[in-house]
């Protein structure tokens, strides 16, 4: 008769480590729940109503926003526990600090937090598609995501462009600002809803701007944005990919937070190299990334790796070649791709805590 194997003793657990991990889970779960609540706040105008209003009771905020006081009371309690609003227990009031309001209620501020939560919403809605992609090693195209991704991307990235593109990034490029002031032809590849294209068209009225994106719905939205800004005659938008947009001779070609999403980034840059004016410039804006994985294990890297897993890598794998650079492609890899595409000059022109800005020349 075969003997039964003796049960192995359970491994000794580090109780402190266990409790620390449980504490992390509680923080993560609370953050995920409050992301949804913050979307409610944006969509109902709750943050906007609190901005600059000083301390408010739930009844006062409900009256300001034509919403239910009971729901508002619970929402405010959650936001106070989340640290987004301040609570005065003695007065029974809630206050949105000016510093928080700048990021929660001002779409033209230095950052607009609710935009990120729209992206988070799309990630949850699309996780079943990504799970299946894990199994079949196929991609999930940008166009296959929930519309919250497109809205969130515009809202999240536009403030960065608004505060940096004209004031810092373009001036950091060799001779480009002068060209744009005099009159130049500019292509914005992967333009999405056209936030960057419209901003440049507003700043440089003597130049012509052409936005390209393969996503028809985004191009339609970009045209609306240009018309609303009054720049539709110098900011035009067409459906095209990075490898087949028109061969007009451009002075500046821009890739804003999109090169790593492309299936064939080297092919895209090669196409640009072939059509760019001899003294033309490529502007590439990419997520801030260090050279090694361990150097990116920080709060910003946490967001970028998550976005890369759920959005960027699947988008690339859904296209030809499927290079799947990911949102944390190091500078050395980007330099290698640019060189292989025919560019002799590659330099980091500027950076922010979240982006690196590169200049490419022939």
What characteristics describe this protein?
13 helices; alpha/beta; Rossmann fold; single chain; seven-stranded mixed β-sheet; 2 domains; Arc Repressor Mutant, subunit A
What does this structure look like?
The chain has 362 residues and is an alpha/beta fold. It folds into two domains: 17-104, Winged helix-like DNA-binding domain superfamily/Winged helix DNA-binding domain (Arc Repressor Mutant, subunit A, Orthogonal Bundle), CATH 1.10.10; 113-361, Vaccinia Virus protein VP39 (Rossmann fold), CATH 3.40.50.150. The protein is built from 13 helices and nine strands. The strands form two sheets. Strands 5-4-3-6-7-9-8 form a seven-stranded mixed beta sheet. Helix 10 links the parallel strand 4 and strand 5. The model has no long low-confidence stretch (mean pLDDT 95).
Question: In brief, what are we looking at here?
Answer:
This protein has 362 residues and is of the alpha/beta class. It has helices at 15-43, 46-50, 58-65, 69-82, 98-104, 113-136, 147-169, 176-182, 195-203, 216-229, 265-275, 299-317, 331-340; strands spanning 86-88, 93-95, 185-189, 208-213, 235-239, 250-256, 276-287, 345-351, 355-361.
């Amino acid at each position: 008769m075969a003997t039964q194997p003796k049960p192995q003793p359970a491994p000794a657990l580090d109780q402190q480590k266990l409790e620390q991990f449980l504490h992390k889970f509680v923080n993560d779960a609370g953050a995920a729940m409050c992301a949804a609540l913050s979307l409610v706040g944006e969509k109902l105008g709750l943050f906007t109503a609190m901005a600059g209003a000083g301390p408010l009771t739930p009844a006062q905020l409900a009256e300001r926003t034509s919403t239910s006081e009971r729901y508002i009371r619970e929402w405010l309690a959650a936001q106070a526990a989340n640290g987004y609003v301040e609570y005065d227990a003695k007065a029974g009031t809630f206050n949105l600090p000016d510093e928080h309001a700048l990021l929660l209620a001002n779409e033209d501020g230095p950052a607009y937090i609710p935009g990120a939560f729209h992206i988070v919403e799309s990630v949850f809605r699309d996780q079943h598609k990504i799970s299946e992609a894990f199994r079949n090693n196929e991609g999930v195209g940008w166009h296959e995501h929930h519309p919250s991704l497109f809205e969130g991307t515009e809202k999240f990235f536009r403030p960065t462009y608004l505060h940096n593109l004209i004031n810092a990034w373009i001036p950091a490029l060799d001779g480009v600002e002068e060209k744009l002031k005099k009159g130049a032809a500019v292509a914005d590849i992967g333009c999405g809803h056209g936030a960057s294209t419209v901003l440049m068209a507003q700043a440089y009225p003597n130049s012509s701007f052409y936005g390209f994106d393969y996503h028809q719905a985004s191009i339609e939205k970009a045209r609306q944005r240009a018309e609303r800004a009054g720049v539709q005659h110098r900011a035009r938008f067409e459906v095209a990919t990075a490898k087949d947009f028109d061969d007009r001779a451009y002075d500046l070609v821009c890739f804003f937070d999109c090169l790593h999403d492309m299936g064939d980034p080297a092919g895209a840059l090669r196409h640009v190299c072939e059509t760019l004016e001899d003294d033309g410039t490529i502007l590439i804006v990419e997520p801030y990334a260090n050279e090694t994985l361990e150097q990116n294990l920080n709060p910003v890297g946490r967001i970028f790796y998550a976005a890369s897993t759920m959005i960027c890598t699947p988008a690339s794998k859904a296209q030809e070649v499927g290079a799947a650079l990911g949102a944390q492609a190091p500078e050395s890899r980007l330099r290698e791709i640019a060189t292989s595409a025919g560019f002799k000059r590659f330099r980091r022109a500027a950076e922010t805590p979240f982006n690196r800005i590169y200049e490419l020349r022939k």
